[in-house]
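Hi everyone,

Forwarding the result from last night's run.
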Amino acid sequence: MTREELLDAIDKKYEAMGQDPNVHLSGLLHAEPMTYWDFAQVDALLGLQTQRTQLPDEMVFIMYHQINELLFKMILWEMQQISFTENIKPEKFVMHLMRVSRYFDMLSNSFDIMGEGMELEQYMKFRDTLTPASGFQSAQYRKIEIASTELINLIDYRFRKTINRDTPYEHAFDNMYWQAAGLDRKNGGKNMLMRNFEKKYKKELIEWMKDYNTVNLWTKFKELPEEYRKNVDLVNAMRHYDHTVNIDWVMHHYDAAAKYLDSGPVEVEATGGSDWHKYMHPRYQRRIFFPELWSKEELENWGLDNLEGYKKVH
């Protein structure tokens, strides 16, 4: 584009907005040039790590989880491009879905940072200062799950027959599979982990449920024209995403937790107090976003194949 064409395009852009192009050009004239540290907000980002102890490896733990949250934000950004694009074509669906899967691949492969990057003795000391906080309380991860599939697929298996399209959102929220991790096993009520989480995020997550009720990835896929739903690349991308999130990533997380929590002579609870073995392992929770894209045999063995992968459809 020539300088004249560029200036003409700028004029048209700001005139369409009811703005004086010359004012914006004048602002550009006086603006400071962009720097990397301003663009990436490096100073702000590096000022967000606050330790509660003097144990060096706590810093690893803090930064690792902050990186996770940034990746979760990237994932939600990509999912939004699918959910809120009208008449989406298979190629665009696949492009964004594979971006999401790559982000989760990065998350899965990063667990060695915790598994190999913290001394057990240090971890077992500073983890006590985290109680009752837990990675369970990541609202962004809950949003990813909700934006991925219909709520029925996130309901605790024991209660699915009591849930249907007419069920109030709050009732569905109270029966999500992860509610079991917030149960106080001593008195049967909700533990502090769950009470704190709901106080902070329950209303926000219920609104999120409403927003994605008809545009979650699974509903979006099922409403595509039949020829699109038969697109092999799209079906494989859906299956890859489902397996990546609900088996690969979960099992890497499970194995990283086991290295520390199963290393001692007695069983150790998660910092939030949950029975983390049953909460995390896919064979117990059977988190499956797109159940109709898997064979009967695959569904029966869900979570038992661990990290061996899955077969693509042809």
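The longest helix spans residues 232-261.

Cheers,
N.
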